[in-house]
Design a protein that fits this description.
The structure holds two protein chains of two kinds. Chain A is an alpha/beta fold. Chain A has helices at 3-18, 44-55, 71-74, 140-145, 160-169, 179-185, 217-229, 231-240, 250-253; strands at residues 23-29, 32-33, 37-38, 58-64, 83-88, 95-96, 101-109, 127-132, 135-136, 152-155, 174-178, 190-193, 198-199, 202-203, 205-212. In chain A, strands 1, 4, 5, 6, 7, 8, 9, 10, 11, 12 and 15 form an eleven-stranded mixed beta sheet that branches. Helix content of chain B is 5%, strand content 36%. The longest helix of chain B has 11 residues, at 4-14. The chains are: A alpha/beta, B mainly beta.
Chain lengths: 263, 588
């Protein structure tokens, strides 16, 4: 059913079909983490939530919760909402939908065009690197093995603007960033995927899904269908936010959700 | 307090003078004005109505619900016949009137801690307590404020913001107030927090000084009077030179544990947490001054000496545990020392004037270090147990350590240190997908489990002179509550499955126990009520890092939750439920 029919249906059946207030899609989102989301709903995940909600004949209601350690446990799995956007598709403590894009860690430089971890000139460069969780961003493991730990300048992973600014100002020669942050904060800078795309089994590219609670299989199926139906619009949205992507449009290529690991 | 002097005199008569040094000789006013009871952090009270003969008659006197059901780690305070309680987030401060039956609420202070702070805290939304000083109650809020509240009226006197939850910083520790300075430190470690201890003016709340754990000497407040005992602790700017590049800027070393103070030496003591990032391969070097203890002047923050327990830590062995000050006869010589049961499973006895380590013997099973060289001060790690980006199995103790934050108690009568602790091992295997702030990554899969013997905790009495245990009681769960000991020769602690226990301080015999509503991870205290009777109080309410599986409603099948602690605690929910209740006991 197209979204137009859905809206029409909503208008026609008014209160009877979905209860007094209509159907609500409750979304947990960070109130201040652009380009993903903010309290003014300006992020691409806000827009995405509205897109799929519309497809489901629902309106979005947010539960704002900082995307810190234990986000899924403290928000989605605590019942504050029914869906979260933008999780890695291999997440284990929730049920991911089919992926709707794949992005990558990238090198961001002024004009140096750094792309590979194996480039000898990295040895004489200051390399900006965000903390992600308790550790540096995944490409750091490769840098440590290459003896480049001393070239690393650490940044808080909560301040990606500062990392891009350090590249612009020359405080660092190159920085490693997660793709969507680089697209948003790195305007005018040289952005290239980190190659090789993995090191010692640590991937630098990730497929991204929405996620629901493990038992909410019906909602997940609905979201899967909505992602498939809106694939083109989603890709346009990601383009608008300059999200670097890898490979094919995952929302078109995979028709089903990845199977949920049982533990 | 008319009876005070007579009781004190009686208590003093019982004490063998050889071990009764000046530090323990601060007079006891039978109140409880700071979580450690006194600046020496002994958690020892001279009260002895409740003693090893009478404790069997101990009865519940009254209770109070905190209205919160997250981990209750704080110590109640009792000053001027008023009891003060700090709750976990939202960090309410209650004042209870002990002069009236049932101890009704005098006032409640609400600091309006922002809800978002709950999402930032790593290990439950705990608070470890307040401190009373000169008519005010001082404590920290989860969203990085230190507040001063008028102890009589409950009105806020000042409120100072010290950190930013948006950068992953929280505050959970209890302040210590020394010479008009409120000493506080930060928590958090993920995403690149840099640790500090700050001193705030007790009257105005203005920051007087801040000492960072990492960075150049001027940031660490190291100057010409800095005289560490060991050679490899000397040299300029070790807080940057023992790191690669500029990684010290986000090097961790937060200050979320305990502070002690020696008025004679005029030194404050505290420890620093683990270095970041977790992957030790990324930070070659000693990573000073993480996993260290500092001695500083309270007026200026100037460092006098430091000792690093665990250079280049790769097991999350924060060095923030309590530093219990005592004067001991060691090899025929009276020494001013501090005792600290560290996360690495060793009990350090350190000369608190100089920073010399006198002993560092394991108080729990451990296999990651061989020894501490007392000549160089350096710990020798077992190579096969080093972590990195690889699978490592059978490492003991686990990241919460031989002992975590739960403070021990020292009795100058028995000359024993009473240690509630863990018995946990862990392995690091494979990787699992995760994400934070929109950023996906794969992290090491940490799983913890019970150490040798199958018990996950123990309560041990330790002889700090002989550097040996005297007795030890096994506990099924980690003993995650504080300890408290009295001149009545009873030692109190609580268990995560909800038993509040009194043991004979000499031999560990169980003399009395009471089942409370929810597991205990709080700090027991004792005080003399306005009726002249001795009371014992403790907060019940399971949670914290160890109890997050119950307080945070974690899924017991996800063993990697709570940073791998959930695996070791999957059955806790069968033994206790959430709660938040104060229990107060007295003799009939």
């Amino acid at each position: 059913m197209s979204s137009r029919c859905h809206s029409l249906l909503l208008l026609l059946c008014a209160t009877a079909c979905f209860g007094a207030d209509g159907r609500i899609l409750r979304v947990c989102a960070d109130p201040d983490n652009m380009p993903f989301s903010n309290r003014n709903a300006e992020g691409f995940e806000n827009r995405l939530a509205e897109l799929v909600a519309h497809e489901l004949g629902a309106r979005v209601e947010y539960a704002w919760w900082p995307e810190k350690l234990g986000f899924v446990r403290k928000s989605l799995n605590a019942g504050l909402c029914d869906v979260v956007m933008g999780v890695p598709s291999t997440i284990e403590n929730a049920a991911p939908t089919r992926p709707y894009y794949r992005s990558t860690y990238v090198f961001v430089s002024r004009a140096q065009g750094v792309a590979s971890l194996n480039e000898p000139r990295l040895r004489s460069m200051k390399i900006g690197m965000p903390m992600v969780g308790d550790d540096y961003a995944p490409p750091s493991h490769a840098l440590a093995r290459l003896g480049l730990a001393g070239n690393v300048v650490g940044f808080s992973g909560y301040d990606n603007r500062a990392i891009a600014d350090a590249v612009s100002s020359g405080a660092v020669d190159v920085a490693v960033m997660w793709g969507p942050f680089a697209g948003w904060y790195g305007k005018g800078l040289d952005v290239r995927p980190v190659t090789p795309a993995a090191f010692l089994g640590v991937p630098f590219t990730f497929e991204i899904s929405m996620a629901v609670r493990k038992q909410d299989t019906e909602l997940r199926a609905e979201l899967d269908r909505a992602i498939g139906a809106k694939c083109g619009a989603i890709q346009k949205l990601l383009d608008e936010y300059r999200v670097p992507r890898e490979g094919r449009n995952t929302c078109e290529s995979s028709l089903e959700s990845p199977s949920v690991a049982l533990h | 307090m008319g009876k005070k002097s007579r009781l004190a005199a009686c208590a003093a008569l019982l004490l063998p003078t050889s071990i009764f040094g000046q530090i323990q000789n601060q007079s006891d006013d039978y109140q409880w004005a700071m979580p450690g009871k006194n600046y020496a952090a002994t958690r020892f009270s001279s009260l002895d109505q409740i003693n090893k003969n009478t404790v069997k008659n101990l009865k519940l006197a009254w209770t109070f619900s905190t209205g919160t059901v997250r981990g209750q780690e704080s110590a109640p305070l009792v000053v001027n016949n008023t009891m003060y309680l700090v709750t976990p987030w939202p960090n309410l401060l209650y004042a209870l009137d002990l002069t009236k039956p049932g101890a009704p609420t005098k006032w409640v202070y609400d600091p309006h801690t922002v809800p978002a702070a709950q999402g930032v805290a790593c290990c439950d939304v705990v608070n470890r307590g307040a401190a009373f000083y000169n008519g005010k109650i001082y404590y920290n809020t989860l969203d990085d404020h230190t507040v001063a509240v008028d102890a009589n009226t409950g009105k806020e006197v000042w409120n100072t913001k010290l950190g930013d939850i948006n950068m992953g910083e929280t505050m959970t520790m209890a302040p210590l107030v020394v010479k008009g300075k409120v000493l506080v430190g930060n928590s958090g470690g993920e995403m690149g927090v840099r640790g500090w201890l700050s001193a705030l003016d007790a009257d105005s709340g203005k920051i007087a000084w801040r000492a960072y754990t990492t960075g150049p000497d001027k940031d660490v407040l190291i100057g010409p009077n800095f005289k560490p005992f060991y050679a490899d602790h000397r040299g300029q700017d070790l807080g940057t030179k023992t790191w690669q590049g500029e990684q010290w800027k986000i090097g961790g070393g937060t200050v979320w544990g305990w502070i002690s103070y020696d008025p004679d030496l005029n030194l404050v003591y505290y420890g620093t947490a683990n270095p970041g990032p977790w992957n030790a391969d990324m930070r070659p070097g000693d990573n000073k001054w993480t996993c260290s203890v500092f001695a500083r002047r309270p007026e200026t923050g100037e460092a006098i000496w430091a000792y690093q327990y665990f250079p280049h830590d790769d097991h999350d062995y924060d060095g923030v545990n309590e530093l219990v000050l005592m004067d001991l006869n060691i090899n025929g010589q009276m020494r001013k020392v501090m005792a600290t049961p560290n996360r690495d499973g060793r009990l350090y006895i350190i000369d608190r004037a100089t920073g010399e380590v006198l002993s560092a013997e394991p108080f729990v099973y451990q296999n990651v270090t061989e020894s501490v060289d007392l000549k160089t001060g350096r710990i020798k790690a077992v190579d096969a147990k080093k972590t990195g980006f690889k699978t490592t199995q059978d490492m003991c103790p686990a990241p919460p350590g031989g002992k975590d934050w739960q403070p021990s108690a020292f009795s100058p009568k028995t000359s024993l240190l009473y240690i509630p602790h863990n018995n946990l091992c862990y392995e690091m295997q494979g990787v699992q997908a995760n994400y934070i702030a929109g950023t996906p990554y794969v992290g090491a899969n940490v799983k913890m489990y019970a150490g040798p013997g199958g018990n996950r905790g123990a309560f041990t009495a330790w002889d700090p002179v002989k550097a040996k245990p005297v007795w030890s009681v096994k506990e099924d769960f980690p003993a995650w509550s504080g300890a408290m000991v009295t001149a009545g020769d009873v030692v109190f602690y609580g268990t995560m499955d909800g038993w509040f226990k009194a043991l004979n301080a000499y031999d560990g015999t169980l003399l009395w126990q009471f089942k409370v509503g929810s597991g205990i991870i709080g700090q027991p205290i004792t005080y003399k009520g306005p009726d002249g009777k001795q009371y014992v109080a403790v907060l019940s309410g399971v949670g914290g890092w160890s109890g997050a599986i119950v307080a945070g409603g974690l899924n017991p099948v996800d063993g990697t939750a709570a940073l791998g602690f959930a695996n070791a605690m999957s059955d806790l929910g069968k033994h206790t439920t959430k709660g938040g209740m104060l229990y107060v006991f007295a003799l009939p």
